[in-house]
Amino acid sequence: MSHEPSAETRDRILDAAEQAFSEHGLAGARVAAIASSADVNKAMLYYYFGSKDGLYTAVLERMADSIVAMADRAMMASDAPPEQRLFQFVEGYRDLLSTKPRFLRIVIRELLADGGKLVPLFLARAPHILGAFWQCVREGQAAGTINPDLDFRVVMPVLLAPYIMFNVGSTVLKG
Q1: Among 40, 69, 83, 153, which residue carries the largest CB count within 10 Å?
Q2: Alpha-carbon gap, residue 83 to 91, rounded angstroms
Q3: One-letter-per-residue 3-state SS of 132-166
Q4: For residue 145, what are the CA distances in angstroms to 41, 71, 174?
Q5: What is residue 76's DSSP assignment?
């Protein structure tokens, strides 16, 4: 019997943990329930992730990797005009939220807790993303396609806020 980690088992555990953390937060999620949902025993979960905190960190890392991959596809299309790269970024973010609705619930829970884990994970993986985004805004402002009076640092929250609010609202309105 092989004791090598299985990518399929690891993903199943991460999927179950993502569901539990999105519904109950880190403190409220139970390792036994996550293991049962993933169809593994608790020992297997600890074998893969070491602890509940290690599992939570792995969920956040997977989320950060998805966000970075989406942002890279949008922002690193250097031959596209700045407003098109921004549009691709916003559309990519919208698509990510619509295909992975648990992400936003985890992000909101994380930010309400203290935000101390997700932001550093994201920045460690993609320090270039914010710089590329802000450079794109500056290029658009210089070209006259983006309002030059806007502080470039507020453009990302302004562009993403409608999608965040829609997704938050849709989870409240579901019966």
Answers
A1: 40
A2: 12
A3: HHHHHHHHHHHHCCCCCCCCHHHHHHHHHHHHHHH
A4: 55, 21, 38
A5: T
Is 42 in contact with 32 (CB distance < 8 Å)? yes
- Report the b/e string of 38-63 with b at 16+ CB within 10 A: bebeeebbeebbeebeebbbbbbbbb
The tens digit of pLDDT for each residue in 24-81 reads 989 999 999 999 999 999 999 999 999 999 999 999 999 888 888 888 888 877 688 8
- Report d(CA 136, CA 35) in Å as an integer: 44
Q: For residues 14 and 88, what is the distance between their CA atoms, to the nearest angstrom?
A: 28
> In degrees to the nearest 10, what's the CA dihedral of 46, 50, 51, 56?
-100
- Give the count of beta carbons closer than 10 Å to the beta carbon of residue 102: 18
CA nearest neighbour of 157 among 133, 132, 138: 133
DSSP state of 2: -
What's the CA gap between 80 and 82, in Å, rounded? 6
Find tokens 């460690």 and name the residue: 124
Write the DSSP string, 11-58: HHHHHHHHHHHHHHHHHH--HHHHHHHTTS-HHHHHHHHSSHHHHHHH
Give this prediction's pTM: 0.80
